[in-house]
Amino acid sequence: MTAFLNHFSFEFKTGLRNRNLLMTNYLLPLVFYVMMGFVMVQINPAFAATLIPSMVVFTMMVSTILGMPAPLTEARSQGIYRSYKINGIPALSILAIPVLTTIFHAMIVSVIIALTGGSFFDGATPESWGAFVFITLLIAFTFGGIGALIGVVGSSTTSVVMLAQIIFIPSILLGGMMIPLEQLPESVRWISALFPATYAMEAFNGLAYGRETLIQPGVALIILAISALLSFGFAVYLFNWDSQNGTRRGNPLLALIALVPYIAGAIYINL
Amino acid sequence: MNQLAIELNNLRKSYGEVIAVDQVSFSVPKGEIFGLLGPNGAGKTTTLECLEGLRKPDSGMMRIMGEDPARDGRRLRNLVGVQLQTSGLPATMTVDESMRFFTAYHGVQPRYDLLERMDLLKKKGSQYQELSTGQKRRLALILAIAHDPLIVILDEPTAGLDVASRAELHAMMQELKNNGTTILLATHDMAEAEKMTDSVAILLKGSIITMGTVREITAQGSGFTKISVRTEESRLHEDEIEFPAVSQRVIKNEYVNYFTTEPGVTVSSIINYVEKQGDRLIDLRVERPSLEERFLEITSERN
């Protein structure tokens, strides 16, 4: 337990000491939230309805998908995991603790957004705070798992950034955060169904706000939960201690299996 | 009861077409310091990394305290302390955090006494990225021994250390040995190996080319002992006198150097001659061939 607490405490502090992580954990989500609250709500007043969940999903994605993977890859290439391995630190801790601490940082920002969005920017507050908290936690683990998987399969910081952007940019554009899913052309909806943000927004809209949704919120939750399990499971399975040692337990392409729930979701949305 | 701390039998490890280690076998009795010597690329680090469980050998048998490090790595973590040649700690981790972090995973209390001894206590609050190369090496060593392991594996531990830290490290190694710890030391530094080890193996191109105590290895060479003599009148410089068992005479600065196979006989003849000539000895040194000389001899023969 002492080892876990020491490890957790160190990783949590790293999220504040490391400038890049400070940027992705706090500065970028909060600055973007304030900007969207001031500007976007004035340009499109309807955006106020989804301001809080959109910014929570954005925060989770920035922290876990943009911020977390690069330090995982760097630690491997700098031989840090070699030091960990010879001291008996399990791969599960090496992956789980950064995921948990990143989620912790993202939760702090999410709480700030949830508590201020209504009073500062007229953002709609959830009808069900219980559902809102539950979905926030679930998507934290889903994005955390995806971030860990990207960090594990990425061979360099550059490749990690590219992999993260492949998920991040389309999620912002097509994930229901800026434009509601029902307003997207039908031909584009199946593409948006390939990204986790879409299911996160549908779950928030359906369960926390009681709105009509295109995807059944329960199905969205199941897809997010399966994705979280698959992503983190494959991250642990494919974890490589040493960039100098090419031997892996499995081919990194196995990571694509983590996309299966979203492909199933895209098929479901077209039925 | 098995008295061997480390056993390696016909270890082989290749990287693609390149055979890094081939048929390497040695054993280290408990409580000894065993040196693994060799030039860059000889296979020292690969051998150590197989023993540490960081690499899986292609074939061969390895045992540390009777356990296979490739399969029973977890059971060995608290028995073995390792200082890697290339490793790192997170850039923002402080010295204090690293001590608490690793000792907690080994289930022991932090060893601030070791930080003090290696002059790192005052750097307790410094982040890893702020430490000098020498300080990083010292910290890595401290973390390797903080859990009082029975076996310590050190890969080039003195690289980047200043003279004082090096002396402190050697004193620490001696203390560990006196307490019964077995040490496997890979080094380029022949003087270090000569001073610290009970026995050594010299690796070249992935294979062991000789093994034994330093005395045994140096005795395998040309067998010449160097006698260096300096006298007041420098009579030995002038006279081309032949002394028994001497095969070569070289004058260097104030000294005349004789290379002999029978140092006792040669020394007494030199002293008699100097006295007869009315000259007076200022300095006389008898030097065995050093490990470094023997190492260079062996490696040049093989190359």
Describe the protein.
Chain A has 271 residues and is an all-alpha fold. Chain A is 74% helix and 0% strand. Chain A has helices at 2-17, 19-43, 51-67, 69-77, 80-86, 91-121, 129-153, 157-174, 186-192, 196-208, 217-238, 260-270. In chain A, helix 4 (69-77) packs parallel to helix 7. Chain B is α/β, with parallel strands linked by helices and 303 residues long. Chain B folds into two domains: 4-219, 3-Layer(aba) Sandwich (Rossmann fold); 223-289, Alpha-Beta Plaits. Chain B has a six-stranded mixed β-sheet with strand order 5-6-7-3-8-9, sandwiched between helices. The mean pLDDT of chain B is 88. Chains A and B meet through helix 1 and helix 5 of A and helix 3 of B.
Quick recap of the structure?
With 271 residues, chain A is mainly alpha-helical.
Based on CA atoms alone, the radius of gyration of chain B comes out at: 24 Å
Coarse structural class of chain B: alpha/beta
- Averaged pLDDT of chain A, please? 91
Tally of extended strands of chain B?
A: 13
Output the number of helix runs of chain A. Answer: 12
Backbone structural class of chain A: mainly alpha
Principal-axis shape of chain A? globular
Mean pLDDT of chain B, to the nearest integer, reads 88
**Chain pair forming the biggest interface:** A-B, 25 and 31 residues
Helix content of chain A: over 70%
If strands are numbered along the chain, what order do they take across the biggest sheet of chain B?
A: 5-6-7-3-8-9
The CATH architecture name of the largest domain in chain B reads: 3-Layer(aba) Sandwich
Number of helices of chain B: 11
Rg of chain A: 18 Å
CATH level-1 class of the largest domain in chain B: Alpha Beta
Q: What pattern of helices and strands is seen along the backbone of chain A?
A: HHHHHHHHHHHH
Total E-strand runs of chain A: 0
SSE run of chain B: EEEHEHEHHHEHEHEEHEHEEHEH
Give the CATH H-level superfamily of the largest domain in chain B.
P-loop containing nucleotide triphosphate hydrolases
